[in-house]
Design a protein that fits this description.
The chain has a domain of about 130 residues: Ubiquitin-like (UB roll) (Roll). The chain is globular and about 65 Å long. It has a six-stranded mixed sheet with strand order 2-4-1-5-6-7, with helices on both faces. By secondary structure, it is of the alpha/beta class. About 35% of the residues lie in helices and about 20% in strands. Bound molecules: guanosine-5'-triphosphate and magnesium ion (MG). The site of magnesium ion has 3 residues, from helix 1.
Length: about 375
Amino acid sequence: MTDGVTIPFIMKIPKIMFKIGERVMKLGIVGLNQSGKTTIFNALTQRTGESAPPGGHAVPVLGVVPVPDPRVDWLSHLYKPVKTTYAQVTYLDLQGIPGAAETKQEYIALLLNHMRPMDAFLMVVRNFASPVSGAAQVDRDFHELEDEFVLADLGTVEKRLERLALDQKKGKKMPPVETELLESAAVLLNEGKPLRSKPAFAAAPELRGYTFLSAKPLLVVINNDDEDPDLPQISFDPVEAMVVRGKLEMELTQLPEEEAASFREDFGIQESAVQRVIERSFSLLSLITFLTVGEDEVKAWHIKKDTLALDSAGQIHSDIQKGFIRAEVVACEDLRRAGDYPAARKLGLVRLEGKTYPVQDGDIINFRFNV
Ligand SMILES: Nc1nc2c(ncn2[C@@H]2O[C@H](COP(=O)(O)OP(=O)(O)OP(=O)(O)O)[C@@H](O)[C@H]2O)c(=O)[nH]1
Ligand SMILES: [Mg+2]
């Protein structure tokens, strides 16, 4: 397909340019003490043991994990590139929490302090009998932490409303939208409900600066014992919840693939639960994938849903954004049906899109730009 104009076209982008511009989205692993957070973090990131030195300070440990994607597998098979790069999610686990955080409250306060800047949470809830904390009580444990989110946010809202009322007494004007939002947030939080239960709060630009804990997207991972594959009775809606047998999954990641496969069969695990957690983490962050292809590299890039072509170009490099001319786009599914790029082009499946095109999940994009 052609748009009838000769377009300066730079195919090869210097490798160094790929390093810049990607914003890392982070999921914080939260949960009560000894719920299996580090076990699940290790299963997700294929590590063993604690990374924090014992007896020291609380240390945030980051783990970067590739997001499984059959489209990338197929494109890599088609192009046989030097390098294949999957989209990534980053998890943060707070390890080595010092003995000084003795009470549950202190433990949670310290944990949440570190977790506040995260983009979303993965909450681990214990569903195995523990020598420290006794029989599993999934509902109770979930609500214990959720209530802490709600209380912390209510504290923030009330403090801010008091401040605004004081300012008003001194003759300052109250910002009307923010005040109204805070007042209705206070009502919701007073009912014990998280801000994420009203998407309007989570999305409101006037509230963004507050980094409310209960507004962040949440994926609940119920950490079952080895022999138990089932989701227990739970009463927390509308949160996303899934079951992982954390200890088993962590042990599996430490085995050679053949042995792990035979274990998986024995325990009736079709797809690694860990892979599902990673996939769900990615969509929890409202991310979609676009792809760039070539003999050098097949690469999956993550962007927020509804990102325009111009901003997607900026994800790769600011120069590509600045010099943006057109985006040459083919949906990965269309390419698959056509068989290869020239065939897709012949069938008219390769489109030229402008700056304001909202990039779709699975788009393969070739940016045309001027530098
Ligand atoms: N039976 C059983 N034990 C588990 C499971 N997951 C974790 N554990 C055990 O529970 C204990 C705590 O696990 P961790 O992963 O350290 O829990 P944590 O939430 O990181 O603990 P802190 O960081 O100290 O709060 C360890 O002894 C684990 O071996 C599980 O699925 N089943
Ligand atoms: Mg831990």
